[in-house]
Amino acid sequence: MKKMIRTSIKNLLIILLAFAGIIVLFSSFYSPAPQEKNITLNELAADINAGTVQRIVVQGDTIHVTFTDNSLGTTQKESDASLSDTLHNYNVDQTKLIKIPLEIQDNSGFQFWAGILFPTLIPLIIIGLFFWFTLRQARSGASAAFNFGKSNVKLFTPFKDRITFADVAGLSEAKQELMEVVDFLRNPKKYLDVGAQIPRGVLLLGQPGTGKTLLARAVAGEAQVPFFHISASEFVEMFVGVGASRTRDAFMTAKKAAPAILFIDEIDAIGRERGAGLGGGHDEREQTLNQILVEMDGFEKEAQVIVLAATNRPDILDPALLRPGRFDRRVVMDLPDINDREAILKIHSRNKVLEKTVDLRPIAVRTPGFSGADLANLMNEAAILAATKGKKIIDQEDLYQSIEKVLLGPERRSRVLNQKEKEITAYHEAGHALIAASLEDADPVHKVSIIARGQAGGYTLKLPAEDRYLRTRKQFLADLAVTFGGYTTEEMVFKDLSTGASNDLSVASEIARRMVTKYGMSKFGPITFGKTQELIFLGKEISNERNYSDVVAAEIDKEVEGIIQKAYALAKSVLTKNRKALDAIAHELMEKETIEKESFDALIEKFKIIPQAIV
Ligand code: ADP
Ligand code: MG
Ligand code: ZN
Fold it and tell me: Is 36-107 a CATH 3.30.70.100 domain?
């Protein structure tokens, strides 16, 4: 805001300066020559005869006279008569007149026209300038309203902050695939000679933060061919038809520079399935998409332009985009595994000061499910944390603390609980933690806390012992029991329930329903219910269509309820059996507010809890 005010003040100053300049220019044409005194023709004739006139300039009907003493005079003659005729009528001595230098200036001279035009032009110029400045402001501001049609395609200059594959950890398959594409561009002959077709489009798919944009930039750094990039959301503007013309422009720019790479980031912004009606589904997007299809088809066989695109919503992309000849190559970018996580952490610690003893491996171990962006963020949070503590070096503890910050949001120590609330929260979390520690199939507890974080009032941090790609029925049941741990404890200890468990309950219901309708983990056996459009690797449903009868619907509900009751009973039995341990954890929490893994394990140890298996 401040910056905006400053720029508009600057612009105002420029306008005022321009104004002043114009006025100066203008007045130079208009200010009468200095001390020109008006004389009559009689006087002029007399002066000539007296020999006191040095020079005469005729400008139209105006006569400017310079006297021998360098003073100036002016007079008018009749329009039609020439000066010599006029003076002759006034009995001027011809011999004297001939000796005086006489200059006739054409009326069509610059000065004359300027004199006429300037008064009319100046308002126009001022108005023009005014518009120019407002336009400039509008353009640099939010709306590029007057710049539509231009693609905004940017040439990526690899020399400035050059990123190479060395800056991208893991993702070896993606790198491999892209290296091949780059090689196509560098040595097209090699491929064309054996009859291979140059690929048209490569689509990078992956969850947000998996490094799609980063990898594309690395390709630019490696490619040694011009690399143009544009974000698809820039295509979609408020004016209909703009997107299409921008697309055309972007492709044209790339084709001119061929061999080249054109990178369209976040292509889902325009590549949505046509007619899907999601997100307002307006025509503009369709036109832009169509234009992309047309452009990609329009490449001649040997056109050396490769289109790279990135999206985290492949499910909603129009099938036409994915067909051969368009984005026929797809590179899936998975969340990093443990080794990749360590490598990513290493990359992002390059410009940070870490204590020599810092080990990144345990950090990688504790961060399953983190994306590259999360890990980069974690590293940065650790640096911030160290700086806040007034340290110059980041240590292991800073890193551990940052994991939770990234995972759960910042601590909210300011949220003060009264004694009763503190007790309820402590027992609630102790319930979760105890059940997690008592079941074989549950993830181990890493930390329990009653300090509010993000949305949660308290939290129990459980982390899988290793990276997991599959989940089993027993794990789900264990998860459910752990999730009910808070609710069940409150009920058991206080004979009352609080709103603190509401999120737990909705998570649990969702898991149970999926077990029945999606994973075949119920009496129905191997069958799924409901036709869902699912974001496979985001694990989210975007729509759910019922394809079963009301009778089945009722049975599904009964099955879901059965699973929930089973998990609830399990939670209850574990808690009743280990009531002493529950009290111990809760009291420790009330006293210390946070229990780390080591202390938690030591605490549990005393009660000789043997983790039980789920049947
Ligand atoms: P996306 O485009 O997939 O949403 P980005 O490419 O913008 O994700 O990644 C965000 C940030 O995360 C990058 O700037 C980088 O700092 C970090 N990052 C993600 N993946 C990696 C990786 N494999 N190696 C190194 N850094 C990564
Ligand atoms: Mg991106
Ligand atoms: Zn809870």
Answer: no
**What is this structure's pTM?**
0.65
* Ligand 1 atom at shortest distance from the alpha carbon of 347: 25
Instruction: Write the pLDDT tens digit of every residue in 449-470.
Output: 998 877 677 888 887 777 777 8
Class assignment of domain 419-605? mainly alpha
Among 1.10.8.60, 3.40.50.2300, 3.40.50.720, 3.60.20.30, name the CATH number for the domain at 338-407.
Answer: 1.10.8.60
CA of 545 to the centre of ligand 1 (A): 35
pLDDT in tens, 555-576: 999 999 999 999 999 999 999 9
- 429: annotated active-site residue: yes
380 versus 120: the higher-pLDDT residue is 380
The lowest-confidence range among 189-198, 292-301, 324-333 is 292-301
Catalytic residue among 266, 429, 490, 588: 429
CA distances from 188 to 192, 344, 401, 495 (A): 6, 33, 51, 76
Domain ranges (residues) in the chain: 1-32+126-147, 36-107, 154-333, 338-407, 419-605
Query: Which DSSP letter does residue 315 get?
Result: G
How far, in Å, from the CA of 409 to the mean position of ligand 2? 22
154-333 is a CATH 3.40.50.300 domain: yes
List, in sequence order, every residue forming a beta bridge with 543; answer none if it has no partner.
533
Question: pLDDT (tens digit, 9 = 90+) per residue, 269-292?
Answer: 776 655 544 444 456 677 777 788
> What's the Cα-to-Cα distance from 572 to each of 346, 394, 525, rounded to whole Å?
44, 44, 28
- List all residues 6 or more positions away from 382 whose beta carbon is below 8 Å from its beta carbon: 352, 394, 398, 399, 401, 402
Q: Tell me how far the alpha carbon of residue 589 lies from the centroid of ligand 3, in angstroms.
A: 15
Spatial contact of 48 and 87, defined as CB atoms under 8 Å apart: yes
* 3-class secondary-structure state, position 606: coil
